[in-house]
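Known limitations

Files may contain more than one protein. Parsers should not assume a single record per file. Below, a two-record file is shown to illustrate correct handling: read the sequence, read the token line, then continue until end of file.
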Amino acid sequence: MEIDVLAWANSGINLVIINEIKSRVKEDSIHQLQKMLEEFLFFYPEHTGKKRMGILTGMDWDFGIPEKAMAAGFVTASIHDNIFKINSPKGFQPKYWE
């Protein structure tokens, strides 16, 4: 499994974050990240017992895709001029895979 950015925390937090980065984010990017979250423990069994969440990051987004990504439970982000910015609105609650 190829993961663009993988972060995790132990000690009571027990969370894995998978960040998929695309130059152009299309609808199939949502399905790809969902599949990665579902299959993650097969490839990384040492993280069993941790919740998993996804961030979908892109430089350019197809129309309506940020809304669909958030409806699927993903945090959305963008990268422009070497600046990473979370785009999900304040108070957004991501989905956790367990």
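...continuing to the second record:
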Amino acid sequence: MQLPDYFNTIETTGSAEFKDRGSRFIAVAAPVKTIADCKQKLADIKKEYPKASHYCFAYRLGLDNNQFRVSDDGEPSGSAGRPILGQMDSRGVTDILIVIVRYFGGTLLGVPGLINAYKSAAAMVLQVTPLVRRPVLVHYHLQFDYTKMNEIMTAVKQFDCEVLKQELQLFCVMDIAIPRYRLNETLMKLNDIRDLSIEAIK
């Protein structure tokens, strides 16, 4: 599968509210990196809205489309989590969690009404939370002699790479993240540096 050069995500938490026949649906969108982040954020939201009837959510992590989860949290199957995820996917966002907190208003909405409510609340929160476009980063491990440091740092800065970690002694190791759209030119430049060992980190 060809990975994209960029992906969309969010950097800040946003919220929006949708109402239908007395029920309130409060949508909270939060940036997340790991499943542990998602669990922590969900726990925080439950504390913030302790008396709600349901806490339905969806999250998507990473770029391979395999890391996601949906929860209907007691609502009829398929009426909450899937519509939330569908809105995320229609906007092409990842590394995001959307939790929709429902306060029941006394009137049953039926499955079509619920699907509409959860979909609408998710769409609203994605409209009010700014999306950011991020480059996809590819990680590489470098080993080199300290005398090559300046050349390497020049290349790292020139191609907008990030230094993830480094150990600088007489013999140095460094892990860097290279933007995918600049990968070929970065590797060409680094390969021109003598006695530099480069390997991709899987």
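Parsers that stop after the first record will miss the second one. For reference, the second record is described as follows. The chain is about 30% helix and 35% strand.
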